[in-house]
Design goal:
Residues 16-221 form the BURP domain. InterPro entries: BURP, BURP_dom. A hairpin with a 7-residue loop joins strand 6 and strand 7 (155-158). The chain is an alpha+beta fold. The protein contains five helices and eleven strands; from the N terminus they run αβααβαβββββββαββ. Strands 1, 4, 5, 8, 9 and 10 form a six-stranded antiparallel beta sheet that branches. The two termini are 31 Å apart. Residues 1-7 have low confidence and may be disordered. It has a domain at 16-36 and 91-220. It is globular. It has helices at residues 2-6, 55-61, 69-81, 97-108, 195-201, and strands spanning 16-18, 91-94, 115-116, 119-121, 130-139, 143-147, 155-158, 163-172, 179-187, 209-212, 218-220.
Length: 221
């Protein structure tokens, strides 16, 4: 985590790793947590397009100070959601599971996309430590959706290229501690990734890098 801060990369403890290091028996770093909480967000009854030109309108409606960190987060989300369309890696932002599923179904070219999420079996704490018990690949064609910083629920969904999606069964290192059925995504070609990631993980440019999905992410496949 300290290394991640030094490299100015936003990485939660234990969530990013080299694929070659994912093996049965691997122990995740202490402090690895899959649960994501936070205060409930507003119900979206304010229908404004997720475009940067509506930033002032959104900040005013939700009474967010223009000079606040929250305002910057909203602006960043609108920029991400408003990126030009990309045929190679389609992306879009949504505020409902139904809309996400429709997008994923079309992007994947399937008759009905299925959803996978990370599940915690018990109650985890910062002291919980996990060990890898089982690994299974379930798709080479996935659409991950992750929550964005916004006044109401907004998810950014995209269909990345050259990926593998995995289910990783984790068990508590100590008896009586919770286990996790985790979803993970591996990017199989990282040749164009920032050098900081390889320095952080001790890897070589181009080799597969994976990340676990917290409980508030959805993986469609």
């Amino acid at each position: 985590e300290a290394q991640a801060k030094r490299h100015q990369i936003k990485v939660q403890t234990g969530m990013l790793f080299l694929k070659k290091n994912l093996r049965v028996g691997t122990v995740l770093p202490q402090g690895t947590m899959f649960a994501r909480g936070g205060s409930p967000k507003s119900v979206n009854s304010f229908f404004t397009p997720l475009e940067s030109k509506y930033l002032a309108t959104i900040l005013s409606h939700y009474k967010i100070s223009h000079s606040s960190i929250k305002a910057q987060q909203v602006a960043d989300t609108l920029r991400s959601c408003g990126k030009p369309a990309d045929k190679e890696e389609p992306h879009m932002c949504f505020s409902s599971c139904e809309a996400m599923a429709r997008f994923a179904t079309k992007a994947l070219g399937v008759s009905g996309a299925r959803a996978a999420i990370t599940r915690i079996h018990g109650h985890e704490t910062p002291n919980t430590m996990y060990v890898v018990a089982q690994i299974a690949q379930f798709s080479n064609n996935s659409v991950p959706c992750h929550p964005m910083d916004f006044p109401y629920e907004v998810f950014y969904c995209h269909r990345p290229r050259e990926v593998q999606s995995l289910t990783v069964q984790l068990k508590g290192l100590k008896d009586g501690t919770p286990g996790v059925t985790a979803t993970a995504m591996c990017h199989m070609n990282t040749s164009d990734w920032d050098q900081q990631y390889f320095e952080l993980l001790g890897g070589e440019r181009g080799e597969p890098i994976c990340h676990y999905m917290p409980t508030n992410y959805i993986m469609f496949y």
